Amino acid sequence: MNLINSPILGKTLADFGAAFRSGAITSLDVTRAMLDRIAALEPKLQAFTYVDAKNALAQAAAIDALWASGQDLGPLMGVPVAVKDIFSIDAMPTKVGSRLSLDDLIPPQGPFVTSLQQAGCILLGKTVVTEFCLGGFNLTHPTPWNPIDPTTPRMTGGSSHGSAVAMAAALAGFTVGGDTGGSVRWPAALCGVTGYKSSVGLWGSEGVFPLSPRFDTIGIFTANAHDAALVEAALRQGPMCIPPLAHNMTLAITNDHFMENLETEVAECFAQAVARLRKAGAQFVEVPMVEAAEIDEVFAGIVPADLISFLGRERLKTHWHLVDPVTAARIEKAFDMSADVYARLVARQKVLEQLMAERLKGIDALLSPTVPVLPKPTADFTTVEQASAWNKLATQNIRPANLFNQCAISLPIHHLGSALPVGLQLCATAGSDDVLLATARTVQDILSVP
Fold this sequence. Notes:
By secondary structure, the chain is an alpha/beta fold. The chain is built from 15 helices and eleven strands. Strands 1-3-2-4-6-5-10-11-9-7-8 form an eleven-stranded mixed beta sheet, sandwiched between helices.
């Protein structure tokens, strides 16, 4: 994947900022190099739906001029960014991974994208998404090539897999996704990068095509936890939380749900991570999490019903032949859901959210494997039944954080015992994003995450 050298590969965003401010690099030179790299690798990777080279170069030149005039927009100034194709960006198309005509439903550009521009980020373009963000694999839409294996096409996770692939191939300084049911942490784990899911409402969802507003959150892909914390703090326009010392961390693990269906390499990497954290002085407590199994009823019931409500039954039924069969299988289960069943599921979700917040009091993060399995070859999935089974298994550990309204992050830990990517998930109570990211920075450093 080194046809065109990446000016950010092996560097942190702090490194980038220091080089930019010293004059060692310019935003225009970096953006041009990134666009050249995208042009060289994109024919194989297929991570982008739209590359806006002309406007990206113009943005970069303007940023360099601002810096030369003495204006500093903050730590993200000049950083090239790619954004999932559910975010409206002025002068860029939004398709949400679908062949349906959705122009009347596409919102205007929202505050999150505007905040990226105000921070001085260079918007390179839009990245591939599974249809309506519903699941991690479509049969009738191409899946981006997972850069971790140059010879065999492998699963990338979903639905923000275009952004994950772009980050894994060093096509941007960081990339943006959306996480309604694990859609950032899942592809981060399978592509070997860091994926952070924010708390609901931390970053406003206006200007983002909705799947289920109750669960929709914005997330980012970065090379490491330090970069994720820097992005969050920069967009918050505040300081990063100081990482805790290992012996001051209280981490939770569980034997329920999250430890089921683990492949050998995943189990071994997770065991190694826990052992290293214990040795460093972190305190561990075991908590029950049997309620996580309710994702199959509560979460899987609410989400497609919300999507039907937004898209409209008539639009779906009229253009049903254009919907990917894996997406259709998820949607049609909710066509006949009654109002009283929906209300019961919503009420149960609120109870679970409060229950988990109480249970995790005093705990910095709940640890688990992000995905219980390794990225399989895409050739193994040729039917709706196979793809649906994969979606259910692979999201086993990530959807609970959405169900319980938590913030979460996935760190790559395959260096602890696997040739293919494995992720370590940290989940925390909603609103504790800065503390979660600080904890993740300490965990990353203890585990020597590459």
